Amino acid sequence: MSSKTPETLSVNAVRVALARPLRRLFDYSIPEGMNVTPGQRVRVPFGHHYLTGIVVSRCAEAPTEFKLKPIDEVLDEDALIPQDLLDLLSWAARYYQHPPGECLFAALPPQLRTARAAELPQPERWFANTAEAPDIPARAHRQRALLDWLGAQPQGADKTTIDAAGFNQTLLKALADRGLAFNRPVEPKTITTTGEPLVALNPGQQQVLEALPPPDDGFSTTLVYGVTGSGKTEVYLHYLNNWLDDTSQALVMVPEINLTPQTVNRFRRHFGERIIVWHSALNDTERTRAWLRVQRGEPLIVVGTRSAILLPFRKLKTLIVDEEHDSSYKQNEGFRYSGRDLAVYRGQVSSCPVILGTATPSLESLHNVRLGRYQMLKLEQRAASAKPPKIRILDIRSRPLDGGLSRPLIDEIGQRVEAGDQVLIFINRRGFAPVMMCFDCGHIMECPHCDSRLALHRQDQLLHCHHCDFRMRATPQCPKCKSGKLSPVGEGTERTEEVLQQHFPNTPVLRVDRDSTRRKGSMEQILENVHQGTPCILVGTQMLAKGHDFPNVTLVAVVNADGGLFSVDFRAPEQLLQTLTQVSGRAGRGKKEGHVLIQTCHGEHPLLQGLADNDYLGLARLLLDERTEAELPPASFMAIIRAEAVDMAQSVGLLDALSQHVLASGDDIQVLGPLPSVMARKAGRYRAQLIFQAATRKPLHTQLQNACLWLERQKLPRHLRWQVDVDPVETG
Ligand code: ADP
Ligand code: ZN
Ligand code: ZN
User: In this structure, are residues 481 and 440 in contact, taking their beta carbons and an 8 Å threshold?
Assistant: First the structure.
């Protein structure tokens, strides 16, 4: 794929991306009199039917062998996808070795992946027509109910609200057909930004603000290392406020919006309607609308998750990636891109500054600082006079535990609650217990489809596999020896919650994990309780570690830090260090000093010792040295090809044949494996992997391309599947 301008080329044919899992584009001729531009959607013949495609470029040379089929129809008046986004996606398709059509279509909202016109859906409101005497058959009581309900909405209601009230579009249409309901477009609002003034920055923040390169200087990447609570968000706000004129667009990427609605609100309070959000919970219409508003160049600031990097900005002036270390920036299925890494590339093609912010920089970013590719700015003090939290390591090797909690920890929780403060307990497992074991015969309940154990969720009375979602009823009867002694071993959030509630019957215990926040609005509800500031005990998983600002939390405890200390995954120590630092950072963000207690059986471990000294950068540099010495990323380049099938011989067999092929054709790279994955069987499928590693990017890329072409040529049985993962985050 090329991004040459059409003028330099004369052949009357274009290369079109189709949503097909093939690593190629498709050429079509342009009929006489038809105007076609890269970025437009077209309707093209494909096999026996027609498909919607996206024009990527003009053909540079006349295709020879056979006559091309002509484009049937051009679907957009102008390019729908701007040139710099086309460039980004074409580059990403090559870099991640993913079919270009799938990459391009991933960037379109679902409604525009078809031939549907790219018109901005005008929000409309529905009203009851009270002028007509309602003529509804007696048995149509749902229509009657909707009519009554609409009649009680003097401001009218949009479709989403109507659905949310328990009605549907069929009922609405029936009423409209009877002339009993009508709609009116909502007046488009002009964008206003006369919001709340920003807080004055402290001298440290001011220094960082002044050192950040302005958008007019073009592309650069800056890593803002700011300890937890140092006020990075305020710096972003000031930066945008200073440098964005009334016509420019900006993107602020965040890991997960629903976890921290607070952050969006802070942007909204100042920038008002200039802020729009982009995340997975939007419905299709909201998605199309947001996408087209960005595409039209409205002066928006998008606060969005990973896929916001694929939005069609036209006037992008700044890219901010908050919590750049967060693994949720990596897409783990299909088009496996890293939102953070694409942001840096996008900064280059769109010629704008990229700001990566975090209290726990990824080793990738620190490596880039070492190489001089990124500038690093530091905010080492907490904003608003808060002090860094005091971290203590508590060795629990010979201590009795209750729900995972040691006596000193329980005592300390009591003191905090007594003093009117809030407490946060971090435990990395949801459910009641991770294991169910028979106390007579030692049998352990395992998932019938995975190499994993079933966790007990006592509230639902279920045994649950967290890897494939298998569920079965929980009973005390052992399936092996028939005794009634099947019992929970170890602890998860539910058990710790229960134990805490027993110890502190008068204090609310709030559990935050995927189970307790599944219902829409439940996370907001919990956060609201916490922000009221009255004493409470929060018990939760990772979800609690991310970006929250709880000023009244003065004690944070980690139930068990040992999971990541001795893992086979080379990224485990980095991730553990980041999680522990982030969780600790929730303590003492307000006026009172914060304390952190970390329970462990390996108190002497250097990683935990360093953590107690609040020295993230020092530890991260040591880890980076270790990686460099071991020639692991980011000091080298890695990609994984995975295969899965209904038996292991097939998965390994395919990868084995592939590795012979690759080894035969190149020697600048190392090929490791094939090996069964750490969880060899998942959801009934047997998984194996082949790791590619190289000191430089180029040979790795060439060999991967080679490998994918070879794999695409194989006639594989239907259930044998493979995928490529470049710069993998999960390596097991
Ligand atoms: P970070 O994102 O670096 O963890 P935040 O931006 O959430 O930090 O800021 C932490 C707290 O400090 C917030 O409550 C914020 O309102 C407050 N804060 C930040 N900067 C200032 C400032 N200059 N003056 C007063 N309070 C500030
Ligand atoms: Zn048994
Ligand atoms: Zn399972």
Answer: yes
Q: Dihedral of CA 431/433/434/437: which sign?
A: negative
DSSP strand E in 390-459: where? 390-395, 401-402, 405-406, 422-426, 435-438, 455-457
Question: Ligand 1 within 6 A of 348 CB?
Answer: no
For ligand 1, mutation pick of 205, 228, 233, 240 (most atoms within 8 Å of CB)? 233
Ligand 1 pocket member 588 (CB < 6 A): no
* Whole-number Cα distances in Å, 250 to 257, 269, 300, 314: 17, 17, 7, 10
- Residue range 500-548, pLDDT digits in tens: 999 999 999 999 999 998 888 888 888 888 999 899 999 999 888 887 8
- Tell me, what's the pLDDT at 298? 94
The closest of 88, 77, 25, 90 to 51, measured between CA atoms, is: 25
Over the range 203-223, which residues count as b (16 or more CB within 10 Å of their CB) and which as e?
ebbeebbeebbebeeebbbbb
Spell out a b/e string for 309-329, using b for 16 or more CB atoms within 10 Å of the CB, else e: bbbbbbbbbbbbbbbbbbebb
Q: Read off the tokens for 169.
A: 């579009």
Q: Give the least confident one: 46-60, 114-128, 485-499.
A: 114-128
- Both tokens of residue 143? 């229509």
Pocket lining: 90 vs ligand 1, CB cutoff 6 Å: no
Query: For residue 211, what are its two tokens?
Result: 């050192």
- Residue among 550, 598, 549, 545 nearest 575 (CA): 545
Per-residue pLDDT band for 385 (boundaries 50, 70, 90) equals low
Q: Which one, of 346, 503, 323, lies nearest residue 409 by Cα? A: 503
Examine the pLDDT at 7 and tell me if it is beyond 70.
no
Structure tokens at 47: 């096999």
The C-alpha atoms of residue 272 and residue 319 are separated, in whole angstroms, by 19
What residues flank ion ligand 2 with Cβ within 5 A? 438, 440-441, 443, 478, 480-481, 483
Q: Does residue 715 surpass a pLDDT of 50? A: yes
% of the chain with per-residue pLDDT over 70? 96
Give 309-361 pLDDT, tens digit per residue. 999 999 999 999 999 999 999 999 999 999 999 999 999 999 999 999 999 99
Q: What are the residues whose beta carbons fall under 8 Å from the beta carbon of 520, sequence distance 6 or more?
A: none
Q: What are phi and psi of 699, to 5 degrees?
A: -65, -35
Q: 145-176, pLDDT tens digit by residue?
A: 999 899 888 888 888 788 888 888 888 888 88
Which pTM does this prediction carry? 0.88
- State if residue 205 touches ligand 1 by the CB under 6 angstroms criterion: yes
204 CB near ligand 1 (under 6 Å): no
Distance from chain centroid for Cα 540:
19
Which residue in 193, 203, 216, 298 sits closest to 249, CA to CA?
298
Taking alpha carbons only, the member of 47, 35, 31, 38 closest to residue 16 is 38
- Whether the per-residue pLDDT at 5 is higher than 50: the answer is no
Partners of residue 556 on adjacent β-strands:
424, 596
Q: Is the pLDDT of residue 9 over 60?
A: no
Cis status, amide bond into 121, omega within 30 of 0: no
The ligand 1 atom at the shortest distance from the C-alpha of residue 227 is: 3
